[in-house]
Amino acid sequence: MDDKEYVGFATLPNQVHRKSVKKGFDFTLMVAGESGLGKSTLVNSLFLTDLYRDRKLLSAEERIMQTVEITKHAVDIEEKGVRLRLTIVDTPGFGDAVNNTECWRPVAEYIDQQFEQYFRDESGLNRKNIQDNRVHCCLYFISPYGHGLRPLDVEFMKALHQRVNIVPILAKADTLTPPEVDRKKRKIREEIEHFGIKIYQFPDCDSDEDEDFKLQDQALKESIPFAVIGSNTVVEARGRRVRGRLYPWGIVEVENPGHCDFVKLRTMLVRTHMQDLKDVTRETHYENYRAQCIQSMTRLVVKERNRKDRSRNR
């Protein structure tokens, strides 16, 4: 009797899952912030890879003269049969000049260019196999040495918060004591709210989620900005080999939740909210850009039509 009443559409999620796994996934992550805050080290730590092995280190004089560049590093990662094409967009030179007026502009232009390319591909005749290079998330690194957000931090985030999901990062948390980390986090959150900056908002949990997931989600929300430490070095700690930093006074473990928010950042970025970051990019940031493009094209068409009508009436 059960077989007669079973149509079979309950297997649809399995069909979608198989198709998605076969196709693979794309994710584009942008990292921004001044030099020396550990951006490349953190990215390598997050994805257990080395994306910067060919990087040329610049002297202090060269960094001062350098303008903001946009560089891309792509790598294919496979885990338990699931393929991820990860693209890291770096912004060397950002914030390093003596005059940093509008140094965020090349970054904003790059994000808009990716939207424009996707819009063109989506509007073309052949829409199969469209490459999605839209920036899904921007990790913005905030210096631990100041008293909160600098004017450059405010200008950058205000210029980009309508274009990309911004996740603020308090860099080099091992230079601060735990009370200092708490104070800086509170100060940064207050300033983000004061200046009307719209950082990435975690979606509300569904009512049917288990309590452990709800507690984890709440802990992630309360950790903003994530205070992180990056390290590609394996050290010995209490008979265990861990990734961390060795100091004369002890060892800072990257993956120890008591030492920093690295595990929480990786959980949010990879395990729990990667798809939501992509959804917000598609449904909010890209749709806003697409709507502006269509409005601009409509105005041009109407303007041209009115011009032709006036020409005919003369």
TrEMBL record:
Subcellular location, principal: cytoplasm
GO biological process: cell division
CDD domains, per database record: CDC_Septin
Compartment(s) of residence: Cytoplasm
SUPFAM superfamilies, alphabetized: P-loop containing nucleoside triphosphate hydrolases
Residues in Septin-type G domain copies: 23-296
GO molecular function: GTP binding
Classification via PROSITE patterns: G_SEPTIN
Any matching Pfam family: Septin
Keyword set, alphabetical order: Cell cycle, Cell division, Cytoplasm, GTP-binding, Nucleotide-binding
InterPro entries reported for this sequence: G_SEPTIN_dom (IPR030379), P-loop_NTPase (IPR027417), Septin (IPR016491)
One GO cellular component, as annotated: cell cortex
Superkingdom of the source species: Eukaryota
Recorded family membership: Belongs to the TRAFAC class TrmE-Era-EngA-EngB-Septin-like GTPase superfamily. Septin GTPase family.
Protein's recorded name: Septin-type G domain-containing protein
Gene: Septin4
